[in-house]
């Protein structure tokens, strides 16, 4: 509901009284003898997005005497203003709703440029995100400008551009209605403007309002500039609308910047909790691939050298997400490494100790895990799983799953135990360990996802089968095309490939 000041309410009451009087006059006019001229009021021009129409009102009666045309009814100006305010609020509400639905910085900046171009009447624009604290992220998005055009604009000295002065904290009028007519215009700016075909610009800062120590301030996030093909500048109402819109857009961008930074920090922590490099053990080649959920997940892998030339391979997944899942994943992986060093030749004992530790220290959490004890010189593999997906063997003559014994995830039973499985890979075969995120991200039922993974592994080109990294990459590309993987949330994906020579 609009909060109408008392003065306006008084005028509105007067307007209603005047309209009643006009009704009485209309009734009297209907009873007047035929032949007397009737008074007409020219209709007001329509409103579009809160902006007055420039189309003149049509004439109603040719040759009507000016003295016979009644003046505008009292309060018509107030009605016009109220209608304009309502239209402005509706326009801003619609544009802000569209902006609020954006979930990434690039999408938000693109929507800001599109909405702003409609409000100020410009065809092209550029938004530069460059937070003043120097912590990033830094990006540039254009509207109606190709990457080459953005690069050309960036060749202009920063101090000669509106957005550059805003980013550097220097004063700038914002509006440059006729760039080429400005006396002190930088020669490179003149050259670029002539080459790209823009003659005027209007720039605004992107800044989030903040309050520290009882004092209000603002934190600069970046700048946005719209470019006109002809000399022009936005009017007073347009400036007011775009000012309100950019204020909200700055707050929205600040939230997205904070979210991007938090996700980057989570990804960094996750990378630090995983092996920085894979060990080199004679007789086997290793490769690992990992795709993380932006919110942080608990999928992990490990490969550690063991005594007598043996190798321990492990993959697992911790329930939950976010920082707590990352911390639990780090503790679980560190514990498994310790158990593997002491009794790695018995994968069942390793997982039993891990289950006991998880049940005693974190009773509210569950996890799946698969541990394999490999002797590359003998091409011998002993493995055990706890609620985990079975490994997949990829070779020249076969592509098949290794059937591990059925078992519950860690932390779900009072006493976990399952038999181990022994396997002898052929020379040149690759054993692929993975987490269930690879299957769940497809969106298919599990049986179809398993069949899809089998088909993806079987279709690895012969030229790529000698490289475990190429095998893992092919499986990822086939299972999760870019358009499918981009929209998937909530699941990490881990692949650990071991090719035996």
Q: In one word, what is the shape?
A: elongated
Class from helix and strand fractions: alpha+beta
Number of strands: 17
Over all CA atoms, what is the radius of gyration?
35 Å
Indicate the low-confidence ranges by residue numbers: 1-66
Distance between the termini: 76 Å
Helix and strand sequence: HEEHHEEHHEHEEHEEEHHEEEEEEHHHHE
For the largest beta-sheet, the strand count, sense and barrel status come to: 5 strands, antiparallel
What's the overall average pLDDT, rounded? 82
Structure description:
This protein is an alpha+beta fold. The protein has 13 helices and 17 strands. It has helices spanning 6-30, 76-100, 105-120, 147-153, 162-167, 187-196, 236-273, 323-343, 347-361, 437-440, 446-458, 468-479, 482-486, and strands at residues 47-48, 51-52, 124-129, 139-143, 175-176, 200-212, 215-228, 284-291, 299-306, 310-318, 367-375, 380-386, 392-394, 399-401, 421-423, 430-434, 493-500. A hairpin with a 2-residue loop joins β6 and β7 (215-228). The termini are far apart. Residues 1-66 have low confidence and may be disordered.
Layout of SSEs?
Blueprint: H1 6-30, E1 47-48, E2 51-52, H2 76-100, H3 105-120, E3 124-129, E4 139-143, H4 147-153, H5 162-167, E5 175-176, H6 187-196, E6 200-212, E7 215-228, H7 236-273, E8 284-291, E9 299-306, E10 310-318, H8 323-343, H9 347-361, E11 367-375, E12 380-386, E13 392-394, E14 399-401, E15 421-423, E16 430-434, H10 437-440, H11 446-458, H12 468-479, H13 482-486, E17 493-500
Helix pairs in contact: 2-3, 2-7, 3-7, 7-8, 8-9, 11-12
